[in-house]
Amino acid sequence: MATNINTILSWFKTRSKPTQKQFHATWLSFWHKDEQIPTEKINGLQDILENKANLQALQNHQTDSNAHSEFFIRSKFIRTGELSVFKHPNNTDVTKEYTLEINDLVQGFVEKTWINGYYIGGDTNLLESFSVNTNA
């Protein structure tokens, strides 16, 4: 089907006139946009397809509770009533490294409300103990 590109170019040199047979051979050397190109005619496609994830394997991975278990072991899940605390840069007393101090940034649920704010002192079970950031 395909005619070598250099042969085609030689038929169309300046002051040359291709024959009808050469003209047809030119057009038959290319895929028309309405034609489907067979996958085996695309160099390297089979290798690419063989190296992609199998759909069933991917779906199994998405529902596998043991997938990436090492990540979840290192993760900290915060339960209702627990707070995630980020120490304020000015709170540098190493003896209070694991103690909530004024100005520490806090995230979590307080009085059934999700908060993102600074601890200002008082009972950590009460919203009034936090300067809550309401900007989303």
Brief descriptors of the model:
about 140 residues, alpha+beta, 4 strands
Write the topology of this structure:
Layout: H1 5-11, H2 20-27, H3 45-50, H4 55-63, H5 69-74, E1 83-86, E2 105-110, E3 113-119, E4 130-132
Antiparallel strand pairs: 1-2, 2-3, 3-4
Number of strands: 4
What is Rg? 34 Å
| Portion in helices | 25-40%
Can you summarize the main beta sheet? 4 strands, antiparallel
What percentage of amino acids are in beta strands? 5-15%
Q: What is the 3D form?
A: elongated
Number of helices: 5
Spatial gap, N to C terminus: 63 Å
Secondary-structure-based class equals alpha+beta
Give the SSE order as H and E letters.
HHHHHEEEE
Side by side, the strands of the main sheet go 1-2-3-4
Chain-averaged pLDDT: 88
Unreliable stretches (pLDDT < 50, length at least 5) are: none
Walkthrough of the structure:
Helix content is about 25%, strand content about 15%. By secondary structure, the protein is an alpha+beta fold. A hairpin with a 2-residue loop joins strand 2 (about 105-110) and strand 3 (about 115-120). A 4-stranded antiparallel β-sheet has the order 1-2-3-4, with no helix packed on it. It is built from 5 helices and 4 strands, in the order H-H-H-H-H-E-E-E-E.
Summarize the structure.
Helix content is 26%, strand content 15%.
